[in-house]
Amino acid sequence: MDQEKIKKAVYDILIAIGEDPNREGLKDTPERIARMYEEIFSGINEDPLSVLNVEYHENTDEMVLIKDIPFYSICEHHLIPFIGRAHVAYLPKDGRVVGLSKIARVVDILSKKPQLQERLTSDIAKTIMKGLNPLGVAVVVEAEHLCMSMRGIKKPGHTTVTSALRGAFKASSSTRSEVLSLIFGRLI
Ligand SMILES: Nc1nc2c(ncn2[C@@H]2O[C@H](COP(=O)(O)OP(=O)(O)OP(=O)(O)O)[C@@H](O)[C@H]2O)c(=O)[nH]1
Ligand SMILES: [Zn+2]
């Protein structure tokens, strides 16, 4: 990431909005933002598949669901956050499972870039299908977009829900109902 270019751009934005980038409270802001971008956009150059290369074998073909994985991402239209939770389930094939934390790491890596919620959702599903080759993957993402809350239409408290179903979760209505009931805590 080009830290110097980010610093210069933030300095120019501060001038453009009518601020004084040299005043006490703002003088370190361009550098702080450059450091922050390094962190919150770290997923741009990271390969989420790299965390799925440690598999275990367990005699199971039952669903694994990790619910309520918190994430912070950035809306690519306005460069402000959308914040929420991801629920990720998979059906192991031939007993292939991964450490639970690896699923949360995939969500973390994929969330740290500018994007749309739909793309984040399908990228999580695509990565797990590719890295683990399970019988199916179900991803549900629930988020609040600050671009819809603090500006524009101004609807704080809304939730956008997106899903990506692959393999058995798409093909079988009973498997799909099972995962959605577990995610939403009621029979579906
Ligand atoms: N589908 C989708 N839309 C999003 C997402 N994040 C933000 N948006 C929408 O992107 C759209 C951008 O619309 P534009 O008309 O180009 O921009 P704008 O004038 O700032 O739009 P308003 O937010 O309606 O004021 C808005 O409707 C946002 O709500 C997302 O993750 N997925
Ligand atoms: Zn937005």
From TrEMBL:
InterPro entries: GTP-CH-I_C/QueF, GTP-CH-I_N, GTP_CycHdrlase_I, GTP_CycHdrlase_I_CS, GTP_CycHdrlase_I_dom
Source species, domain of life: Bacteria
Residues holding Zn(2+): C75, H78, C147
GO molecular function, one term: GTP cyclohydrolase I activity
Biological processes annotated in GO: one-carbon metabolic process; tetrahydrobiopterin biosynthetic process; tetrahydrofolate biosynthetic process
SUPFAM superfamilies xrefs: Tetrahydrobiopterin biosynthesis enzymes-like
One GO CC annotation: cytoplasm
Keywords in alphabetical order: GTP-binding, Hydrolase, Metal-binding, Nucleotide-binding, One-carbon metabolism, Zinc
Catalytic reaction annotation: GTP + H2O = 7,8-dihydroneopterin 3'-triphosphate + formate + H(+)
Domain GTP cyclohydrolase I: 6-183
Enzyme class: hydrolase
Pathway: Cofactor biosynthesis; 7,8-dihydroneopterin triphosphate biosynthesis; 7,8-dihydroneopterin triphosphate from GTP: step 1/1
EC numbers, comma separated: 3.5.4.16
Gene3D superfamilies reported in the protein's UniProt record: 1.10.286.10, 3.30.1130.10
Name of a matching Pfam family: GTP_cyclohydroI
The protein's assembly and partners: Homopolymer.
UniProt similarity note: Belongs to the GTP cyclohydrolase I family.
Stored NCBIfam families: folE, PRK09347.1-2, PRK09347.1-3
Protein name: GTP cyclohydrolase 1
